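R.M. (postdoc): so does anyone remember the format we settled on? I'll just put the structure tokens first.
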């Protein structure tokens, strides 16, 4: 989409114009200059009411915006041209952005009527996915980030800014963590520093080339010092400083090389201060985006009862970044609890917050000098709510709510100022008067008085002149071109007095003025014009004055956002019957845990917050997952395994973001990370090798999970042959149990895997079942202890109405397989086949010996999964695994390789070569 080749003809001055540079008309010459100066964007050039583009850029605009490609002809040539109307440019700009273009708006910066010759034009704004500030191009409830990444050896710095609100975040981490954070923040546009070497990302940011010098440590310090007094106090390393410095430098450049006044806080965070959710987990738990077409089928949409855009963005941030500090989590839970218990305050808060405007964006517009008088009034309306909100919070018992109430600065000065200065219902335009309230400025009142007196004199003039001249039909009127006039019809012209001066002749009448009328007119116009321009100046002064309070207003915005989220979480908890989770510190004596293991996740009557909304009757299920425990979950397709696993993860995430949870009760540890690996068939990776993806996600988990992590494995190993799949699944289970110690839920169709529970204390089986009632298959959706019956799949096939002959044949195959098989892990056995008989997939392939990629001489002999699988297959890992290894692909491959090595290609005819190849291939297969 963002093809450079495509942009070559679009960005920069059109070569055909440069060829006749000296002969171009002044306007096109100005266009070419601006294109040259902004050769990293498509220049849209204001000509009156249109933005125009020429040559290659015109073709791109015409194609992308579906507008007509016309041409401009002059003495130097014929130039392809396309234009978009300025009045509704937003929709067109959006299309250009979506098509991957960066756009520079070259506006007329002087009044065309005052210009002597060519109107001055300048690029006033660069519009790119990460720098858009126009309301129409922004999603109200979502932060749009611009990001920058810098690298120093193994350390990465990452910074993002939301240019529409001024929120600026910076962090530093090793490569893996930084990439994870980058995925989580998913900036719309990314400035990548030298040598960063980023892999392909799961989202699709516009990568922006920018001056590498901006990443220089000293330059970055200088940039950052424009925003914070002591850069060293904000960031923790040079690489963080380089990232945030370059980021701000680019944002300034995009906003016309000026400081971003509304960036009043640069906040550093450590990813480890939050529950880490990588992009895979965010996606597979469907926190924000759902793979299902059903509306409202994400966790965010279930929670989103926010009353204002501030709250909506904050809710998203909290859900993306649940906490790990128990005190902070409890503070949020206390606040949610207090509001949940107080329906009246909750309703009042909702009411007040729903009339709160998007303060963060308002303040940014005010600082950027783009706010209108209406924006200032919106600010006032919002601030008017603050005392009421404070009052509502007076009676509510919670430390956090009390703190938030205290930080709600009433900003009386700002409110009064706006109230005194700006009329109650100002016009959208700020240059045409009617904006400043009466009594605010004496000079303005005088000027308005003069204009008013003049108009009053004119309105009396008609009667006065009718009486003086005796012409009853005489009229006094006004038009834009000629100003005030006295109109006399032709039959009365003989009675016109001598002081009437002819102004205009019409068909049936003449228009006149008198010297006094002219004088009054000049007076009125002078006063009105002067008043308009004074109003504009006064308005700018008020706006600038309000801008000096940006930081205080942003602090109010911050508190309102938090309040809206806490109120929302309370609403959701009450409406959906959620319970307050209790956190324990992992001590078994602290309760709940049964058999001496350390207490882990204990949930009574847990529900999936999203699925329960779409289901007539959702069956709640308990969870008891000790710390370090691995639950192997079996059961037929559609029985509820994935839903169950996800609901456990969602309960943990909700709890750590400070929300009540969909359960009767929950006792939880604070988890440090949630990992998910969902099965190949569920994977949206599409054409890529899903197995490779599955394995790299598994590797990621096994490397990074800790004993405080929650791991969901859904059908791991399904992407390859049954033998390898089962071996990998077993190895992964053992590894995660023996080496990692993470709380793990593993849904599997490999029935053989359930044996692992006999070998390891911390591994246990759970299962889901189905029954048949009146010929209908019913999934009970309730979890039970122990493994699912191994032949269950065939029974489900039967229940599902698969023809009897097929079911019988399947049964006899299972029995035959049972009799003739080993039960060694890694080999097909009676139960080895995935028990998801209702779903004939790749799993149903006959047994084969495709070697797992981890095998072979290069296998690392360390504590990795690869080594583990290797060990298993070679019989060294498990004490009771004393079977001979089946003839493996190793031996065949070695033979084939030897034969290839020995083949004398010089003396081989093409036919012989083909035969050899075919033979080797057959043996390998
Ligand atoms: N506890 C429950 N109560 C009611 N309905 C449920 C419950 N759990 C799941 N369901 C319903 O069953 C459907 C299938 O559930 P789920 O995808 O979890 O099954 P599964 O066992 O993981 O299937 P597969 O093995 O094919 O992935 C869900 O979409 C939901 O409609």
């Amino acid at each position: 989409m963002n093809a450079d080749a495509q942009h070559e003809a679009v960005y920069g001055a059109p070569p055909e114009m440069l060829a006749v540079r000296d002969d171009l008309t002044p306007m096109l010459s100005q266009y070419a200059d601006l294109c040259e100066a902004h050769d990293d964007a498509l220049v849209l050039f204001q000509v009156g009411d249109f933005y125009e583009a020429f040559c290659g850029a015109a073709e791109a605009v015409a194609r992308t915006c579906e507008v007509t490609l016309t041409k401009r002809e002059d003495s130097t040539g014929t130039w392809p041209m396309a234009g978009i109307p300025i009045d509704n440019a937003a929709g067109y700009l959006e299309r250009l952005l979506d098509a991957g273009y960066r756009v520079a708006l070259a506006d007329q910066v002087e009044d065309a009527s005052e210009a002597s010759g060519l109107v001055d034009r300048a690029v006033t704004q660069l519009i790119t996915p990460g720098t858009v500030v126009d309301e129409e191009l922004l999603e109200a409830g979502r932060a749009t980030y611009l990001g920058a990444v810098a690298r120093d050896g193994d350390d990465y710095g990452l910074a993002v800014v939301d240019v529409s609100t001024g929120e600026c975040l910076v962090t530093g981490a090793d490569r893996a963590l930084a990439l994870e954070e980058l995925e989580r923040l998913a900036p719309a546009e990314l400035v990548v520093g030298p040598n960063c070497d980023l892999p392909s990302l799961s989202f699709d940011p516009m990568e922006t080339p920018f001056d590498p010098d901006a990443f220089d440590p000293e330059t970055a310090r200088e940039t950052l010092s424009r925003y914070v007094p002591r850069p060293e106090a904000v960031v923790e390393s040079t690489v963080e400083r380089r990232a945030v410095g370059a980021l701000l430098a680019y944002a300034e450049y995009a906003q016309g090389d000026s400081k971003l006044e509304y960036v009043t806080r640069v906040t550093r965070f450590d990813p480890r201060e939050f529950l880490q959710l990588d992009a895979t987990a965010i996606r597979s738990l469907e926190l924000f985006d759902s793979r299902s077409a059903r509306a409202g089928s994400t966790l965010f949409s279930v929670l989103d009862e926010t009353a204002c855009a501030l709250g909506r963005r904050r809710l998203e941030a909290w859900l993306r970044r649940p906490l790990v500090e128990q005190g902070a989590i409890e503070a949020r839970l206390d606040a949610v609890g207090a509001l949940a218990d107080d329906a009246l305050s909750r309703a009042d808060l909702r009411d007040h917050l729903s009339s709160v405007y998007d303060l963060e964006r308002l303040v940014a517009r005010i600082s950027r000098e783009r706010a209108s008088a209406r924006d200032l009034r919106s600010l006032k309306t919002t601030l008017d709510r603050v005392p009421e909100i404070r009052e509502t919070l007076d009676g509510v018992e919670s430390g956090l709510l009390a703190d938030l109430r205290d930080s709600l600065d009433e900003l009386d000065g700002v409110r009064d100022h706006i109230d005194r200065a700006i009329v109650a219902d100002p016009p959208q335009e700020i240059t045409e008067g009617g904006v400043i309230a009466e009594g605010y400025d004496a000079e303005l009142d005088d000027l308005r008085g003069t204009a008013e007196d003049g108009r009053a004199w004119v309105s009396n003039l008609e009667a006065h002149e009718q009486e003086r001249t005796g012409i009853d039909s005489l009229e006094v009127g006004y038009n834009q071109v000629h100003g005030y006039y006295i109109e006399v019809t032709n039959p009365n012209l003989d009675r016109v007095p001598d002081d009437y001066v002819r102004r205009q002749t019409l068909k049936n009448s003449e228009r006149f003025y008198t010297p006094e009328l002219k004088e009054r007119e000049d007076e009125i116009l002078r006063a009105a014009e002067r008043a308009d321009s004074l109003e504009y100046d006064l308005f700018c002064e008020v706006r600038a004055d309000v801008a000096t309070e940006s930081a205080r207003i942003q602090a109010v915005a911050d508190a309102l956002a938090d309040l809206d989220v806490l109120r929302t979480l309370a609403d959701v908890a009450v409406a959906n019957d959620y319970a307050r989770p209790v956190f324990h510190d992992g001590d078994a004596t602290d309760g709940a845990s049964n058999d001496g293991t350390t207490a882990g996740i204990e949930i009574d009557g847990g529900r999936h917050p999203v699925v329960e909304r779409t289901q007539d009757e959702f069956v709640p299920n308990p969870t008891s997952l000790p710390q370090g425990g691995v639950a192997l979950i079996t059961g037929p397709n559609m029985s509820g395994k994935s839903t169950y696993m996800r609901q456990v993860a969602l309960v943990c995430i909700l709890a750590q973001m400070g929300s009540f949870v969909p359960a009767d009760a929950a006792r939880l540890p604070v988890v440090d990370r949630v990992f998910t690996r969902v099965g190949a068939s569920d994977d949206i990776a599409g054409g890529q090798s899903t197995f490779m993806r599955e394995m790299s996600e598994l590797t990621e988990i096994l490397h990074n999970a800790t004993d405080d992590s929650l791991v969901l494995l859904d059908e791991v190993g399904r992407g390859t042959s049954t033998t390898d799949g089962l071996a990998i699944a077993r190895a992964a289970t053992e590894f995660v149990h023996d080496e990692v110690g993470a709380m793990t839920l593993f849904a599997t169709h490999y029935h053989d895997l359930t044996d692992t529970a006999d070998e390891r204390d911390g591994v246990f089986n759970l299962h889901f079942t189905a029954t048949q009632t009146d010929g209908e298959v019913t999934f009970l959706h309730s979890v039970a202890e122990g493994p699912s019956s191994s032949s269950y799949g065939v029974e489900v096939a039967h229940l599902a109405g698969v023809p009897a002959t097929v079911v019988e044949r399947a049964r006899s195959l299972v029995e035959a397989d049972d009799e003739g098989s080993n039960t060694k892990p890694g080999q097909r056995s009676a139960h080895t086949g995935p028990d998801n008989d209702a779903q004939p997939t790749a799993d149903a392939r006959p047994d084969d010996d495709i070697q797992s990629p981890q095998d072979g001489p290069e296998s690392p002999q360390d504590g990795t999964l690869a080594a583990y699988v290797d060990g298993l297959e070679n019989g060294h890992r498990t004490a009771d695994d004393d079977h001979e290894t089946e003839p493996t692909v190793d031996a065949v491959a070695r033979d084939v390789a030897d034969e290839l090595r020995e083949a004398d290609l010089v003396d081989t005819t093409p036919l012989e070569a083909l035969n050899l190849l075919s033979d080797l291939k057959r043996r390998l297969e």
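R.M.: ...and that's the designed sequence above, right after the tokens. Also worth knowing: The longest helix spans residues 515-547. The two ends are 41 Å apart (CA to CA).
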